[in-house]
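Entry 12.
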Amino acid sequence: MSQKNKHITELMSLANEVKPLIEALASEMAVITTRMAELEELGLIYASEYWRKDSDGQPKYFYLLYPLKQGEPRRRDYIGCDPARIEAARQGLARAKEYDALMVELSRLEGRANSGLFAMKDALRHLANKSNRFVE
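Predicted 3D structure (tokens):
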């Protein structure tokens, strides 16, 4: 096999590997966006836990403290001491953390897709370049 044919064969082999990789990347991104939509539907809570202590200094009443917004007083939601309400609030907090982690992962995958797109465009431009032909 000549050197020319070897390069063409390898190029064709690499081209055949691209489509499954793109499909896998798209599938992974779809799974993440679906999960993010589920989390949003269930409700995200961007706040921090705060326990108000009783007279003995023990945590008794659960509050959610939201981040400050300029020009507004700090929002505090009273949850109380009901274990079910506390657990629901904590699940909302956990969903928000998971959502943020998924957003980071989705951004990473989108970066890979963009890098791949630029590389593919560069490869196509390079392969389609007809100005390097030798005239005999």
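Annotation: The first strand starts at residue 48 and ends at 53. The beta strands are 48-53, 59-65, 76-80.
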